[in-house]
Structures are given as structure tokens and as C-alpha cells.
Amino acid sequence: MRRPSLQVALAVLLVLAGCSMFGSEPVRESDAVDRLDAAGERVDAVSSYRYNVTIDASTTAGDERVTGHGVGAVNATSQRQVANMSFDGERSVNYLDNRTGFTECRGPLGDGLWGRQQRSTESEWVALTPVGRQLDLLSTGDLYYNGTETVGGRDVAHISGEPSDEVLSERGVGSRNAPVFGSSNVDSVTVDLWLDTATDRPVRSAIRVVVSADGETATATLTFRYRDYGDRVRVSVPDSVREDALSTGCPGS
């Protein structure tokens, strides 16, 4: 059985993927804010892109590790996206058609079924995509400029931050050092973003969550690599999925 803190780390990570502020005022370095604003403008104008994603979670106990990987595609013009994930040995597909999500259910109660879920209408649609979500997480809280690096042969600007308690609460995660999901505490949530210096488009992002419980610490990291901006990306939801999806979502979710 997985240890509670590892389960919490994964739960928080997936909520943020789907996402602590100290003192009265956050630190927001001007160079980082300028880069983030430029990235937001470019992302708003992006018609489509593809991405690869990896998940890695482990505990200080050293005997528990969970990994996952997947690919996804986003068409902002039609407001559709799809993600094909393999997580802890199980495959799953997720669609988003405008504000309606379709998830391939897993587990003994849901194998072979699909669940339907309506997404929030309080934010712009782009905030429901991987790139938009990372920008949203960095829009409040501490934000730092870490200079330039080289990623995949590209010159990139590296910015990082800690989402504010307000954003984390909106995601249903809870504040730093506040108990969530039972007895575990969210110790830190950090977001890193690498932007192409020539285009301001995101090249890579990473969310890292650290939680603790009963003297044990678990760390989970979700890493995205973005590519094929502006390419012809077609995303369609099969009719069978639309017709058969359970309006109550996946069993046990």
C-alpha cells in the first residue's frame, strides 16, 4: 500500500496539473514579471501545440516510487485538447471539449467506462491548458528571474515561483503547512518555467510538490516539454465517448 504522504503529493500534483506565500507582500522580480507577461501575450495568440509530460514521485523512506508519462495536444482555435497518459502502469485518455471534460475511468469499478465533468467558466479557456495553467500559477506569489540557460539547443530564460495561498486554495489544495487530505501537510509548491528568448514561448515547465506526514517526506514532480507551436493539430472526441460518458464522473472519483 502506498504511504499517505506519497498519495497526498500525487493528489496535489494532479490537481495543479488539472496547479505559500511568506510575509505580507510577495517578492516579484521585475525581469521575471516582464518575461511572464510576454509569455502570456504569446500564449494567448497560439493556435495549437503539442507536449510531452513526465511524472515522478518518491518518498524519503526509499521504498516507494511512482512514475508516469504521456503526450498531449491542444487546439486553442476549436478549444479542444487531448492527453494520453500512462501512470503507475495504467493507461488513460482525457479529452476537453470547450468546458466539458471526458476521462477514461480506471480501477475495478470504472474499467472501460468514461466520466464527464464540467470545468470552471470563471477563467479564460487557455487557463485550462497545460501552458495556461503554469502561467496562472505564477501570476501571484513569489516570482524570480534565474537568468538564461540552454534547453534543447535553444536559449531560454528561466523564471520560477511559489504560487500564493489564494491560488492554491482556489485549486482545492490548501495553504502551505495547512493539513490537507488527512494528516499530511503541503510543505512547498514550486513552479519553474523556461521561455524561448527569441519567441517568449514556453519550452519547458515543472511543478514540484513536497508534503510531509508522520516523519516522512514525499516529493512529486510534473514536467512538461512543449513543441510544435502553430502546427496543424486536430483533436476530436469520439462519438462513443460523448454518448456513453457518465454524467456523474468516474465511479469512486
Written description of the protein model:
The protein is α+β, with helices and mostly antiparallel strands and 253 residues long. It is built from 5 helices and 12 strands. Strands 1, 2, 3, 4, 5, 6, 7, 8, 9, 10, 11 and 12 form a 12-stranded antiparallel beta sheet that branches. The longest helix is centred in the N-terminal third of the chain and has 16 residues, at 30-45.
Briefly, what is this?
The chain is of the alpha+beta class. The chain is 20% helix and 42% strand.
Considering the chains and any ligands shown, give keywords for the structure.
253 residues, globular, alpha+beta, twelve-stranded antiparallel beta sheet
H-E string = HHEEEEEEHEEHEEEEH
- Intertermini distance: 19 Å
Anisotropy-based shape: globular
Q: Sheet bearing the most strands, described?
A: 12 strands, antiparallel
Poorly predicted tracts of residues: 19-24, 177-183
Number of distinct helices: 5
Total number of beta strands: 12
Supply the helix-strand structural class: alpha+beta
Mean pLDDT: 85
How much helix is in the residues? 10-25%
Name the beta content range: 35-45%
Computed Rg? 18 Å
